[in-house]
Amino acid sequence: MEDPRTMENSPAVNMLGQYKLIRKLGEGGAGQVYLARHSILEQNYAVKVLRREFHDNEQFTERFFREARLAARLVHPNIVKVVTADRYEDAYYLVMDFIEGISLEEMVAHGALEAHRAVRYIIHVLDGLDYAHTQGMLHRDIKAENILVDGRDEPKIVDFGLVTDVEQRSRLTAPNAVVGTPYYMAPEQWRGETLDARADIFSAGVLLYYTLTGRFPYPGTSPVSVLHRLTSGTHEPLNSVSISGATPLTAPTLELELEKIVSKALQRERALRYDSAHQFARELNEWLDAADLSEPASSLAESTRPAPGTRDNSPLESADQLASAGKLDSANQLSRPATGHYHIAAEDKPMTNESPNLAVSPVEIAPNTYWVGKRPDDEIFYANPYLRHFPGSDGNDDFNLIIDPGSSKDFSVVQAKVSQTIGSIKNVSSIFINHQDPDVGSSVGLLLGRYTPKAYVLCTEDTWRLVHYYNIPRKRFVAMEKYPRGLKVPTGHKLVPVPSPFCHFVGAMMLYDPQNRVLFSGDLFGGLTDRDAKGLYADESDWTGMRAFHQIYMPTNQALRHAIANIRALDPPVEIIAPQHGRVIRGKYVQEFMDRLEQLPVGLDVINDRFASEDELQAWTTVLNRVLEVAKVGLGDQAEVLLADDPNLSGIITFTGQGIEVTSLGKTSVERAVRLLCDHLPHEMANSLKYEAIYASQELDLPTPVIELDEDGPGDKDEEPNKSADATFSIASAE
């Protein structure tokens, strides 16, 4: 194999196993990083290739694979995931997720960042470091080049190639080896001493200083001069340099507080620094709170903040009532919050029609149930946080639940809309999370850490195992699967958990509000939204995006059927479906979209179809046209009309002057068309059509379509199905 080091930045044909190297992304002391594409999965990855001079160094290659194994253990939203490591011929390489974005170094090259933005980035970096440290690992080379900011404005730590296991005393590197980047290195790192988490904290302090100022706290023209400045001088005070774009920092007190935080992180003696990355992040969060720099959009909430002297609702304070029953009392009731009061003025309530400006206004989709999400212009993929306000008997015992609060990127908008509705986001009592994805609940850590520290997080145990990395204490977690018949909130209202495993995570759980008949469905019923779609409510145009979303994210149709069976078992029946993506479903589309999803092949059902060749699609086109000719004997031109009007076939078949052309999902198209046409044909003719589909597929060496043959005649075809057989996993029968 040609040495990847000889490649130019332009696309190349070199292969590392199943990975085609496309172009060089960067390089470091240990190797070069390439954009690569997996030939089977057809997904892009970043591949780090070890320099050839290290190949014969057994100690180094052993360390390379060992640290790859350690890095692969790290699963955190602010750390780039290591996928695998391998050797191909004479090349050693590491495969990581590819992040489409730019580094902090590239951002700072255009000028120092605004204070609120810089501090927010570093808080996320510290969250990732704190997680790695709890896993017994250090980074040892935190710097602006190693922080990538993705398309959602979320920073991610890359290059854990210098990770060391702090729990294991034996080292494969020399005891006094100096590893790191001079401007960012802690004094003990320069001295080659054994490191702990506080070395990464020092580097994070340098990174914060650098993003705020565009300069290093200990500048120098060479490593020796940097070391001299570090050991003999002090860093330039933060308040003596310009912090661009942050108007509130004109206040000397705030500048001084930020200077204190940075200075503590940059202490020469590690004993004087923060004990943990979590502690460092907590102080930065407190500074943000004091500076009122959470996001510029927070001004939307200014007019609705509680008046001085009023008290926010303190959610779920009665811990003694929760302890004996897993945070629920004997009646499966969430304990009451302490008394508090706020008023929702009638004129402030959002309208219930399509007219509100979705950019700034919450939308009441059902009584006291609000959509509080963000809708950027010209985007097709949205997250949908919801707020359910349960009024108490006299206004003192209100209970407020946020459902799928979304990512920290959208938090300022959610915060403003929640504050418009219930006075302050601090009045939130509990948070429900459908599953673990960052776009569903990565803002939960921010909510608990800064605004609602006494709120409870409601989700499944499987979801909890992943979301607790957002710094959610276990004592604030309620496992919803323990209460299949539902639980009561302090106001007496009921909430019912509805299992939807593998939609699209094993621990996914929907939430049903039987009072308003609203189902908060998570990713199920979610979809991509047309750029030209108006308003919040779904119509026929949403089906194409919903179908595509489910075929990408859902594993099998069996998962969909299982979840929908649970929905159909709910009493009273669902009237509104509020998904985590796409638009809210109501009216006739509730039943219609349930019926369609029950029949929709997804994921593994269509995996072979998705990778069909042009020749295979042409063969399936031949099969479908032969089926259509048989159907026309009994249905005439209505056969084409049935296929043309079927939403499940829209986009995967087209009509030409010569008949029908299959453009994708050939086997799936034929199976769907056969089922649809047979529903309108007499029994014997339907069987003839089915046999034609099977024989035509075999003649063209295609896989046999999955088709049910009624060999014994219609029989009991029209009898009522045994609904009890489908209720095995229903809420009513589960305990």
TrEMBL record:
GO molecular function, one term: ATP binding
Domain of life: Bacteria
SMART domains listed in its UniProt record: Lactamase_B (SM00849), S_TKc (SM00220)
Biased composition (Polar residues): 725-735
InterPro entries, per database record: Kinase-like_dom_sf (IPR011009), Metallo-B-lactamas (IPR001279), ODP_dom (IPR045761), Prot_kinase_dom (IPR000719), RibonucZ/Hydroxyglut_hydro (IPR036866), Ser/Thr_kinase_AS (IPR008271)
Ranges of compositional bias, category Basic and acidic residues: 714-723
Pfam family, one: ODP
Occurrences of domain Protein kinase (ranges): 19-288
Chain segments carrying region Disordered: 295-335, 708-735
PROSITE patterns assigned to the protein according to its UniProt record, in alphabetical order: PROTEIN_KINASE_DOM (PS50011), PROTEIN_KINASE_ST (PS00108)
Protein name as it appears in the record: Protein kinase domain-containing protein
